[in-house]
Design a protein that fits this description.
Blueprint (H helix, E strand, L loop, with lengths): L11 E3 L6 E3 L10 H26 L4 H4 L3 H19 L7 H38 L9 H23 L1
Length: 167
């Protein structure tokens, strides 16, 4: 299946033996296609399960384990999950400039929203345990504010690189 995302003029392809140019027919996944319905249904199921998980997280927000897990980074990961489900819906929409930009930037951005906090949490835990072996005081850059700054800088770098890749 061919998807033509952004057209400046009518795209064509060479016909039989390159003797004539024929117009390309736009084909894309529709909402009412069986595959489209399955994708949309699974997306909404994932959104509902994510919402239930978020509710459970908020109910248990005073739990020491959740307090120690850097709530801001966990919120960023929840946002990444929700945006990833939202970006899936862009693949069953009719192609336009905004939809194609969402497909291009959104999918990569939502994975960055998921993995940058996870990477930052992992590095934070590693640094805390390594610092515990050698010194008594807390290592630098393990506060919530500095962790969010690290995550946001990773996201900004990703968006910047992704934009230069396309244009």
């Amino acid at each position: 299946m061919t998807t033509i995302a952004f057209m400046i003029k009518k795209p064509t392809f060479s016909g039989f033996l390159f003797f004539r140019c024929e117009a390309l027919v736009e084909e894309y996944l529709h909402w009412n296609d069986p595959v489209g319905l399955v994708i949309v249904s699974l997306t909404f199921l994932g959104l509902v399960l994510t919402a239930l998980t978020l509710v459970l997280y908020i109910i248990n927000i005073s739990n020491p384990l959740i307090k120690a897990s850097s709530r801001e980074l966990t919120g960023m990961m929840f946002w990444g999950i929700v945006t990833s489900f939202g970006c899936v819906l862009a693949f069953v929409m009719e192609p336009s400039g905004r939809v194609c930009m969402t497909r291009f930037l959104g999918v990569a951005l939502c994975f960055t929203l998921l993995y940058a906090p996870l990477l930052t949490k992992t590095i934070r835990i590693y640094r805390i345990f390594e610092a515990g072996k050698h010194m008594i005081r807390k290592p630098s850059c393990v506060s919530s504010r500095s962790q969010m700054a690290i995550v946001l800088s990773i996201i900004l770098i990703h968006v910047r690189v992704k934009n230069f890749d396309k244009f």
